[in-house]
Amino acid sequence: MSGERLFDVRVVALREEAPGVVSCELQSTSGELPSCPPGAHVDVHLPNGLVRQYSVASATADSYQVAVKRKPASRGGSAFMTDSLRIGSLLRIGAPRDNFPLVAANGRTVLIAGGIGITALLPMARLLAARGLDWTLHYAVRAPEDAAFKRALQDLGDRIRLHASSTAGCRLSIEDIVMQQPAGTHFYCCGPASMLDAFLAATTSLPPEQVHFERFGAEPTAGGQEFVVRLARSGQVLPVAADQTIVDALLAAGVDAPYSCQQGICGSCEVKVLQGSPDHRDDVLTEAEKASNKTMMICCSRACSPELVLDL
Ligand code: FES
Predict the structure, then answer these.
(1) Which of 300, 301, 312 has the most ligand 1 atoms within 8 A of CB, as the residue to mutate?
(2) Measured from the CB, is residue 267 less than 6 Å from ligand 1?
(3) Which of 18, 26, 133, 284 could form a disulfide with 148 if both were Cys (CB 3.0 to 4.6 A apart)?
């Protein structure tokens, strides 16, 4: 793991926000926490050794509130957070990472959330409301009772549109929403993979700087052609098998590699590329950053060229 700064926190509140969704307030045991912009997430280091990323729903000078949805096939992260945490439990967290920044320009902003994705968009809505800007938040759930943070959403008034797929005529159509907005609107989406796919399809003709999204729950990416990584600092040359990630190959060779989510969403495994052509598969770098090939996420991205030379 990278040598990032960690903060000791205590669980000071747990609340069931919706069936299977628990919010958890984490308060520093030793003073202030770094400021946390809307849309940021934190790494939570669990006592069972797992590190999981959670969006911050709200933050004060010394606490962050995160929300967790229990997954039926949990590999230990969401199950621990929803079932084993108690008031007073101690955890360690990283500093917030802002891979999903809010532009908050004067024009119109449309926020589109699905399921637990509301956690990232709720603080954006609060900020837009506080600044008196023009915005709407569309929140897709299966049934009205599945909506998390109901009280906080009610406080935001009639700019919140709840779309319950179980209610006739209420189903979310991202395509319709996008088509109805004025030119220059910024769109933000956070939700499951199917929602992100629909969002990207609906916004494909828009300028990329107006389209913002965060993908959660992506599958760890491996698979493809075998290639070789050369580590510029040590001169080591390591093969990366077709079913291995670069991080896997480095760790197998005893090389200390930075990583966290292993899903291409957190940015902690970013490494400089000195030579070669990466096959970018992450959701962190912008299209322009990917085209520049200056850095890559080694937990999921692979190589288009037979060899990559990395600044490791
Ligand atoms: S470890 Fe999170 S993006 Fe690679």
Answers:
(1) 300
(2) yes
(3) 18
Total residue count of the chain as it appears in this document:
312
| Cα–Cα–Cα angle for 116, 119, 120, rounded to 5 degrees | 115
Q: What CATH number matches the domain at 6-94, 3.40.50.12780, 3.30.1330.60, 2.40.30.10, 3.40.50.1010? A: 2.40.30.10
Confirm or reject: Cβ of 269 under 6 Å from ligand 1: yes
Structure tokens, 213: 């999204």
- CB within 8 A of 198, min separation 6: which ones? 174, 175
Which of 166, 189, 164, 167 has the alpha carbon at shortest distance from 177?
Answer: 189
Q: Where are the domains of the chain?
A: 6-94, 108-215, 227-310
Q: Is the CB of 276 under 6 A from ligand 1?
A: no
Predicted confidence pLDDT, tens digits, the chain (312 residues): 445 789 999 999 999 999 889 999 999 999 999 999 999 999 898 887 778 889 999 999 999 999 988 765 555 677 778 778 899 999 999 999 988 999 877 899 999 999 889 999 999 999 999 999 999 999 999 889 999 999 999 999 999 999 988 777 777 899 999 999 999 999 999 988 778 889 999 999 999 999 999 876 544 454 578 999 999 999 999 999 887 889 989 988 989 888 777 777 777 889 999 999 999 988 788 888 999 999 999 988 999 999 999 999
Bridge partners (DSSP) of residue 139 are 113, 162
